[in-house]
Amino acid sequence: MSILLECKKMKKTGFYPAFIVGGILASCLPVINMAVRSEIFTGLQQPPLQILLNENWAMMAMLNILLILSGACIMYHTENAERALQKMQTLPIRESSMFFAKFILMIGMSIVVLATEAISFLFCSLHWFHTYDGLYTDLLKNFAYFFILLLPAILLSLAISSACSNMWISLGIGVVCFFAATMITSTSHFILQIFPFCLPLRILTESTEQTVIHFLVASVLELLAVGIAELSFLRIRKALV
């Protein structure tokens, strides 16, 4: 019920168009890159998908993170407009249920974006490179990996937005975290590498199997940690109101 309610509320905002247009723009990057510099990439000896990911994913992942930050701000700006969130707190609806309904909706829209990007990579692989056995399997593995590593950033973005009644404050905090992630993503320190906004920048083919497992475990633990912290925050805020 909460999820349907969130879907209806977002229809009155730019939430859905932002994700759809953002996903299309991100998916155009590898196509444009190949159209302009195809002779450079087709001469490389690496597998086609690895070439495409190495050349395009960093920028696409950053666009995905910015989409998530914007989506979270839009969601809670709607709630805080005209004190709507305070009015809903008087109803028999748990705020935690609303929060996780937003999380599920963000997951759904992120899947749409990732699916659009996967189709773009598939098109580039088939159009400019020769097909090979395992292309579809490799594509599925890579984007499943991207999806799991994106989840902590989604949850943390929503947690930041839920704590700030002013959309610009939450957006500013998110942008600071985003730029911090771009600066520390190349570090070799594992603790810094698992910063939630750094994880979506990781590429499956660039990591060893052990490192991939470590990142996946870290992603799950961060989800639990942020979820517990958000539940605690909501209970404390409700007790103080």
Characterization of the model:
It is a single chain. This protein is globular. It starts with a helix and ends with a helix. Helix content is 79%, strand content 0%. The longest helix is centred in the middle third of the chain and has 34 residues. The chain is built from nine helices and no strands. The model has no long low-confidence stretch (mean pLDDT 87). By secondary structure, the protein is mainly alpha-helical.
Count the beta strands.
0
Cα-to-Cα separation, first versus last residue? 26 Å
Radius of gyration: 19 Å
- Average predicted confidence as pLDDT: 87
Q: What class would the helix/strand composition place it in?
A: mainly alpha
Are there runs of 5+ residues with pLDDT below 50, and where?
none
Alpha plus pi helix count: 9
What does the main sheet amount to?
none
Helices and strands, in order, run as HHHHHHHHH
Kindly estimate the percentage of residues that lie in beta strands according to DSSP.
under 5%
Query: Helical residue percent?
Result: over 70%
* Global shape: globular
Brief characterization of the structure:
The protein has helices spanning 2-10, 15-41, 48-80, 84-88, 95-128, 135-163, 167-184, 190-193, 209-240.
Keyphrases for this structure?
mainly alpha, 79% helix, 241 residues
